[in-house]
Design a protein that fits this description.
homodimer, about 650 residues, alpha/beta, 6-stranded parallel beta sheet, 5-stranded parallel beta sheet, elongated
Chain lengths: ~650, ~650
């Protein structure tokens, strides 16, 4: 057995013992794979952790984190202090790998299946950029490697994204499978008896099976690099190899004690010496990982200099894009040529056509087969799937896969990414949206068909519970515009996000354009739309409810009640304004009425800002298949009902 | 071409024209499939829409609803009035099929992929019951048929559940594929180039390909019924056949006008006569569907009578189970023999062992490979996957699939179902939980590892945003107990739900058992845990925060401030109590402090009930990989911070 691999295992088992808990099974089984990848193939450099042409590595089975930390430690990228601090506060070796803009982790993982999705996203980004920067393509020519466990392969998102990767012939994507036959509760075969070779062939992947001998793994990867398709390499390993539970599902999270350590020493014929290893071990890794990587990096820097002299503009653009500097779309989008009184999704369509005409090519966008309905298309016939020069991806009916791939595109860098579907189907994507927000990616979504007014397609297609789901996540901001001007403000946010997830929510049904929206005021995220000094009452809402509030306002006027309408296109950011701004805006004689077709109690936060009454009217129930406008009214979103609530609960 | 099939198409195109919108593509393409299924195979009876041994049919591609409504109409199960009312208010022909306990729809569908999951659940239920009631097994011997579109096959949940069905050899499950080569935005092949035959073989399914000729389809289904595995039948069809957009993705939601009708008439050589059809058409369907079904039903009734005389107890149990009458677990669960001061998940484990000893066999339960961690296991070695007599399903790492299958089990009837995973991974299941709640299924979940105290596994595994996601859905109730007594109350709810989704949320870390909980009071869903007359302040919370509030209470006492602790294990149901009960409980000198490790603003609803101040302290951010107890404290969930908030914001 390879003493270098065993040193990695030794480091892993000690770190897990010190932490008091950990995933021992994979820390033993996966080391031959990470060892081979990093010592032979993966190019990373100490000079720049986020070198744009580094090979990407995703540990999709995130619980195997020690198999990654150990190779990074011996190669000089993570200190021993950090290893000893595994899973502790502020450590750089958390339980599951966590991406940051400064470390050597390319991807946060943990929820299974999504790592492979993010890997597919990275490979998509690489292939698009290689095409976009054709003349200097060697500068973005890296591979993407993903290590998956048996659990990943059972998750739907894994099938979705691997299927798309097969369709796209992503030949620079290589997936290695730590195939150890065990999962947490049982043997893999107790719950999963797929023929992986057939599965891979059915989705247009190449399949290679190999032992866990580093030489076999190396040969398999070499073979994979010659393939014209993505390759799946099944590496037969032994879970918890060398522990008391070797080969058993109980090895998965096995607690490490002194007895385990002595079994380990016997099995590997190795001495465990309190995190001490021979210098020769370090030398082996440093020359093969760090020094090899640095050579590659230095070569790349030379190539960059040569390219700079030949194609200065192209190189500048490439480097800028990787610094998240993109075309400012605010100047491209022209409000004046918009057809008014449309559904907000139609403004999406019109703005997309303006972007298309401007030949913007620094943003990948796509839809889970609803681009024609969400209006997020340039020209659907010219798509990325048929030619990698086009930025429009046909994701297929794979919502979760799409959002996971979007995370991968953004992790890769050099591109923006926006994807779309119906708001209802955000449900499929929740976990990917969450992890994207956690990684502080500038992820943007366009969700249309935003409430009961979807109508005839029935309650499965009528969202009311999605806004609270999305707004509950730290760093996810939901924008819900009421007209073309607020839509422009939403686009400005969707395209300029730096480290936030931005979600634009749009209607299917037409809304009025005649509200006196001031574009600049939108950026307060909540503002006085209809002015009124010393109002009797404040009316707050977002999106389609602004039209409704306007009719309420007129009715109140007929009763000599003066109201102010406050449009709040981004409720969360509205509350980030200073207290005085909010309090002044909400100050009135009687109180505040707020309304939204969502079951979001975040609106109750308004109560924090006012002395007098606040009543919120929301949506807390499924709709039905019927005319959308009527359904909206029946759910209480009609002038008469609101006037009654206001009279009985505020103006009393 | 078959004139009966064409009459179905004619009805469909007219209904869609009348509705003003609809899914024309599949209303044309899928009719040969639904025609063959219902006229030749599916046994349903007018005498009892929910006849327990009827064949189950799931239209996974729910937008093809007219291909189902049309056959149900001609066979006498849906009136012409309802057909004319397609997609209108209160109609029995909504845009997507909707299950009710009284109609002939076995399953609500719409969000793609989940129909197949529910079909797998039905087939699982059938096979378990066939085993449980072995002596009278012919009484539950039906088949489950699922019709899928190309979109279904691209959804992750479809792969997950078909993979499990293959592992389980569910030979009474037959899936038919309306393979029309088109999806909404493009040709299927533009986004999806899988080899379906290989895919099916890789997951242990049989595969048959056939034309859309009803005779070919019939022969394929006959063949499928002889198979020992589940069978996938790919039926090559033409989307929107006979319309102007025949064979094009534009046919998907094609608007029907007079021109389309005349093209239709020409193509099918059929006269469209304002919803009028020859009596012979009706006769054909009535004899082949309704009369054939009724014969089968009458035969079943006879068999039932014979069985009753031989096995009266068994038959009574079978019939009771299908009336949702199950063993009352309240009498089985014994609080007195519980080990105290444990994590609430450990009470789950202890109660499960009590149920195991009682040999309860009317409930299927399982986990997405985390039963050992959620403690929801009887005896993992004796599982359903290895022998269909055991009620414990090893779902594999397929969370979405699991919840979708659970919906199918409950739709089938005759069983309860409970499934489990970590609370964080509820994210994967949101859409299935939503549709289960919409169908008013008695769906129950056990989610453990419920907050920051998960600790070392890091922010991907630390939930804080899941409770608002779940509580935002109509008909979903979240229970979060603080000790073994409240856990018993939660179990009582999980096992006795009639038409609600019940979710129990449990801790990984130990909690104190020494609170004076009164079991009966728990059923108010919020109650005075620590009594205090004329309190200065009210302290509200749930689950792990009760221990914390207790320490706060003691500290306040040291400062001569009298507090009452109100434990609220089910926040949503708490608000369903009458106003007086809530107001009295929350009445105090200064105000109310509430706390929960979630970003749920539903707590702000407390403000509605009190004149004086309410402050809520929640969780609105991701955690990190570190000691869970410390993390909990750092997020502000510690006595000192709370005392400060109370002093500065309420007691001022």
């Amino acid at each position: 057995m390879n003493k270098y691999v065993n040193s990695m295992r030794s480091l892993g088992i000690q770190a897990i013992m010190k932490a008091g808990q950990g995933h021992t099974g994979m820390a033993m089984s996966a080391c031959p794979i990470t060892y081979t990848l990093f010592t032979k193939f993966i190019n990373i450099s100490k000079k720049n952790p986020k070198w744009l042409n580094r090979d990407r590595f995703v540990l999709s089975a995130g619980h195997g984190s020690m198999s990654l930390y150990s190779v990074l430690h011996f190669s000089g990228f993570i200190s021993l202090k950090e290893i000893k601090n595994h899973k502790q506060k502020g450590s750089k070796t958390p339980g599951h790998p966590e991406y940051s803009s400064k470390n050597y982790i390319d991807c946060s993982t943990g929820p299974l299946g999504q790592g492979i999705g993010m890997g597919v996203g990275m490979a998509i980004a690489q292939s698009y950029l290689e095409n976009k920067f054709k003349k200097i393509k060697s500068l973005v020519s890296h591979y993407t490697y993903v290590l998956v466990g048996d659990g990943d392969l059972q998750e739907g998102v894994c099938y979705e994204t691997m299927s798309l990767a097969g369709k796209l012939n992503l030949n620079k994507l290589i997936v290695l499978h730590d195939s150890n036959d065990c999962q947490l509760d049982a043997k893999v075969n107790d719950a999963f008896n797929e023929n992986l070779e057939l599965r891979m062939k059915s989705i247009n992947w190449d399949y290679i099976k190999t032992s866990n001998d580093p030489i076999d793994i190396e040969n398999a990867i070499k073979l994979a690099k010659k393939n014209k398709k993505p390759t799946f390499i099944e590496v037969k390993t032994i879970i918890g190899e060398g522990t008391s539970e070797q080969g058993s599902n109980k090895a998965h999270g096995l607690k490490v004690d002194k007895n385990e350590i002595s079994l380990f020493e016997k099995y590997y014929d190795i001495k465990v010496r309190n995190f001490k290893f021979d210098k020769s071990i370090y030398n082996h890794f440093i020359s093969r990982v760090q020094n090899r990587g640095t050579k590659k990096y230095n070569k790349w820097i030379k190539d960059l200099e040569i390219a700079k002299s030949k194609y200065p503009k192209l190189v500048k653009e490439l480097l800028n894009n990787f610094k998240n500097k993109f075309i400012n779309i605010d100047k491209i989008i022209n409000l004046d040529i918009i057809n008014k009184n449309q559904a907000t999704r139609d403004y999406v369509g019109q703005y997309f056509q303006q972007l298309y005409k401007s030949k913007i090519n620094d943003t990948l966008f796509g839809s889970a087969d609803l681009a024609s309905a969400t209006k997020t298309t340039f020209n659907i016939k010219n798509n990325f799937n048929s030619n990698k020069k086009y930025p429009e991806i046909l994701y297929g009916i794979r919502e979760f896969g799409m959002s996971s791939i979007q995370n991968g595109i953004l992790l890769h860098g050099g591109l923006r990414s926006i994807s779309s579907t119906f708001l209802s189907f955000a449900d499929y994507m929740k976990s990917a949206i969450r992890i994207g927000a956690m990684m502080e990616l500038p992820s943007s979504y366009i969700f249309t068909h935003d409430s009961y007014q979807v109508g005839g397609d029935g309650p499965t297609h009528q969202p009311y519970d999605q806004l609270p789901m999305l707004r509950s996540i730290q760093n996810v901001y939901v924008y819900r515009p009421c007209n073309e001007i607020e839509t422009k403000y939403v686009f400005s946010n969707l395209f300029s996000s730096k480290n936030e997830t931005s979600i634009g929510v749009f209607t299917r049904q037409p809304l009025n354009s005649n509200h006196p929206t001031d574009y600049n005021k939108c950026f307060m995220h909540g503002y006085e739309l209809y002015k009124q000094s010393n109002p009797d009452i404040i009316l707050c809402g977002s999106g389609s409810e602004i039209d409704l509030l306007f009719s309420v306002k007129k009715e109140l006027e007929n009763n000599n009640i003066k109201s102010r309408i406050v449009s709040i296109p981004c409720l969360q950011k509205f509350f980030n304004n200073d207290n005085k701004y909010i309090s002044n805006l909400l100050k009135s004689k009687y109180g505040v009425f707020s309304i939204e077709t969502s079951s979001d109690y975040l609106w109750y936060k308004i109560k924090d800002y006012i002395d007098n009454k606040h009543v919120h009217f929301g949506a807390y129930s499924f709709g039905e298949s019927m005319d959308g406008k009527k359904l909206y009214e029946e759910k209480g979103f009609n002038k008469e009902n609101i006037i009654n609530i206001i009279k009985n609960q505020i103006l009393k």
